Amino acid sequence: MEQKKENILISKEQIDTRVAELGKLISEDYKNKNLYVLSLLRGSFIFTADLVRNITVPTKIGFMTTSSYGHGEISTGVVKIVNDIPDDIKGLDVLIVDDIVDTGITMDFVVNHVKELGAASVNCCVLLDKPERRKVDIKPNYCCFEIPDVFVVGYGLNYGDYYRNVPYVFNWEEN
Ligand code: IMP
Ligand code: MG
User: Fold this and answer.
1) Against a cut of 0.90, is the pTM above it?
2) What is the CATH number of domain 4-70+78-169?
3) What's the distance, CA 147 to chain centroid?
4) Which of 60, 94, 110, 127 shows the smallest number of beta carbons within 10 Å?
């Protein structure tokens, strides 16, 4: 379970700087709005925890868990709600936070779900974006880093449910 440090793609320092920038931007954009941060579990728990501490406007924070069948290399594109949003989000300005937009299927599903629940507005914010892998037409409103089509772990992202606790993002490979 050891990872090679030389495979670091995004360092802890780079993440801290960028998350602070995004938190500031979001705080400006959501002045006089009713912000509700919707964090998608489990991948975004660390990013969300750091991001919300850089947001200076009042915000509620809720969590939702989704799963996609055939997760791994082949995704069937069917998203299932494992744990739904615990609050009434009608009229709120929802900011969906996830670790990464890959095919975009998860984010697209959650955006539509939030709209159906009557949110006043819906935007999405991700740590990472892999635009090359996109299968549905979705672009995150806020994104920390665009990355090429490589499998990454750390800072919430997992491989076989490990490595979420690693404080930086690295390119996963077997040692
Ligand atoms: P999408 O629905 O294909 O956009 O998938 C998004 C989900 O796939 C993310 O929330 C991650 O859980 C997972 N995922 C996609 N790419 C990676 C990666 O490089 N490392 C770890 N998880 C990933
Ligand atoms: Mg995920």
Assistant:
1) yes
2) 3.40.50.2020
3) 14
4) 60
